[in-house]
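Marked as duplicate of an earlier ticket. Keeping the data here for the record.
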Amino acid sequence: MKFDTKVVRAGITPDPTTGAIVPPIFQTATYVLDEVGKDKGFDYTRSSNPTRQMLEAQLAAIDGGAHGICFASGMATVDSCLKLLKSGDHVVCSDDVYGGVSRHFNQVLTRYNLNFTYVDSSDPDKVREVIRPETKMLWVETPTNPLLKVTDLAAMSKLAKEHGLIFGVDSTFATPVFLRPLEFGADLVMHSTTKYLSGHNQIIGGVVITNRQDLAEEMKFIQKTIGAVPSPFDCWLTMLGLKTLHLRMDRHATNAQVVAEFLEAHPKVERVTYPGLASHPQHAVAKAQMDGFSGMISFELVGGIAAGRTVMNSVRLCALAESLGAVETMITHPATMTHVDVPVEERHARGLTDGLVRISVGIEDADDIVADLEQALKKA
């Protein structure tokens, strides 16, 4: 089964009772047992639910994995992955990650004596330098949020195997359409299903996918025990969104290339970062391991934060919103929105300048997106 067919059909079967082509929503908390000790595979929805089970199978299939485990949010997924570790363990993490991830690591998990070192994971030598005997996990975002750094996953996998580390990859920006980290040796692949996978700004969710039976069993135990699970209705909506994932991602990427080239040529834009541009520092790596460059762009305006605010307050089509990966184009100011909880000094050290703007390019007509940005830039 080829990829585009998997997106539409993998893991999905007609309802055996009615033949309904759209899977039903099993909106139930519990299940009646036939007799003591005998059930039909389900006993309580926190443990398992037919709608969630179907979504997990579909997500695993399109990412090339054997097991999918869904959670109530992307952050619940990250937290659950980190619960594979114990007190005293050390994690090497990409230095440019979603602000909610670094907040969780630094302000919550350090209370439980987990230790973190942040490093530019696009440089394998820098990663190697910070691995120590107590290091147990390598956590990578690629492309990163919001600087869009690209990490060579084959190189990271080699390092992880050399040192016996769990190798986790947050592939939310790329989606399985453009990148399947398990093919490069990742142990865990995480997605915020809130974003491109569901694609319509309707739900909050997350998933982790793995080929390792031992990790799958642990993650299922954590899922059941903690109970941070998505509702059956949210799972159903995600499955509906997935059916057009490959079509949407092609349009996202096509539009993003047009917008990135427009911005790179604009006199009021100081710098544009998009993996599909030859000017991107890791363009060659992105081209080698990705099948496309997705829909995320970041850029720096001439004039810094004041110019950035003017542009964002002047857009009409682009929505000023925190999220990403939906059919609508959304524009974000990381310093005051997604990364507001990252200390200023740390933000600047990571390259998150006050004038940085991030765009999640939607699937509208590219000319309309460019026209909106053009009229806003005139006011900067």
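See parent ticket for discussion. Residues 245-264 form the longest helix (20 residues).
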